[in-house]
Amino acid sequence: MSSADVGALRQALNRIAPAALPAFTRELDQAADQSRQGSDLAPLRRFVAQWSVYVHIQRRPHLAAELRHWEDTAATGGASQARRAAREIGRILDEAHAALSIPPR
Q1: Which of 16, 17, 9 is nearest to 47 (CA)?
Q2: How far apart are alpha carbons 68 and 71 in whole angstroms?
Q3: Cβ 44 vs Cβ 54: under 8 Å
């Protein structure tokens, strides 16, 4: 994990999902604070992994649309629909982690 990783993620977000930049910045600040407080890079590594997965998904419009569909279903559907949505969201995230060679969450 390096500042170049964070810069590359910021640039990618600026191109593909600029509306996500405020959340990115807020979460980066939180991860940096946690890392400083604990003298541990793990929060920053988790941050980079999470946002790398987000960028990976957003770069694939069909995958991003599928994720949004399942997120909406989880929020508005009944119990059985929410369970299926949770499985599908997990599958999408697991596949993105694997594609990026990031250990699963």
Answers
A1: 9
A2: 5
A3: no
Element (H, E) at 38: helix 21-38
Helices (H) and strands (E) in the chain, counts: 5, 0
The domain locations on the chain are 1-59, 61-105
Tokens matching residue 84 = 């299926």
Handedness of CA 83, 87, 93, 94 (dihedral sign): positive
- The pair of three-digit structure tokens given for residue 18, joined into one six-digit string: 């600029």
Query: pTM for the whole thing?
Result: 0.88
pLDDT in tens, 66-98: 999 999 999 998 999 999 999 999 999 999 999
